[in-house]
Amino acid sequence: MKDLRIALVQMQVNIGDVKKNREKIAGFVEEAASRKVEMILFPELCVQGYNRERAREFAEPIPGESTNHISRLARSFNMVILAGLAETSGSEKPYITQVVAYPNGQVDKYRKTHLGRSEKPHFTPGDQLPVFETEKARFGVEICWDLHFPEVTTVLSLQGAEIIFAPHASPTIVGDRRDIWLKYLSARAYDNSVFVAACNLVGPTGENQEFCGGALVIDPKGNVVAEDFRGKEGLLVVDLDSRLINTIRHNEATSMRHSFYLQSRRPELYQLLVNTRLIN
């Protein structure tokens, strides 16, 4: 990995107002470009807004109008853009997708693989865990609920991911969002020796929904690098220092403190236990 400047967006969206939401995305990208950002992360379903019941109504194909818009921004501002939208699936239930648009015009995507109980009646789960790559870093995407499943981050790290981008659509609930995230996002980062960069929708959507916001970056040792939990729209710009993760990943550590723990896994034991339980 090389040193990298990223930005995380807390964004208020209006359900179904795709034009206005895309204009807001463009404004954040332009601001990020003025601050020399190289990769920018937008929240889950930021293009159409997060609404389970109406997602099918606003879903778009990929490639499509919104994807083309995001791709043009990536080319114009020489930036990798990760933005969330509802993608048509060929069935009644769309995917929750994070588009990855590159400055060279290439477009990739990740489809949310783990759906919450309230999402399953309305969305189709993805079935792949891809790792993407730029000249500076390899990265994976996990969308909101995905982060509660430790195996996902482990699989991505074993495939070479150095950063996990974590777009959220987490509502305002009882409990502090920072405290909730730190319980498990720090564990995902520490156990798998990855950066975790998370952001969230913020504010009301106009349809009896409100999101609590939050932006957070955690380093490969589980330490908070930068954060913004003021509960309002904004851009958090963070410089990722590659020295720590390179020390861990390239076996340059002089003590066990910087071990890459995944290299010491014994998967034959884990599989044996799984098989034993299935037999019993």
TrEMBL record:
Keywords: Hydrolase. CDD domains: nitrilase_7 (cd07585). InterPro entries: Aliph_Amidase/BUP, C-N_Hydrolase, C-N_Hydrolase_sf. Coiled coil: none annotated. It comes from the Bacteria. PANTHER family: CARBON-NITROGEN FAMILY, PUTATIVE (AFU_ORTHOLOGUE AFUA_5G02350)-RELATED, NITRILASE C965.09-RELATED. This is Predicted amidohydrolase. It comes from Desulfofundulus thermosubterraneus DSM 16057. The lineage of its organism: Bacteria, Bacillati, Bacillota, Clostridia, Eubacteriales.
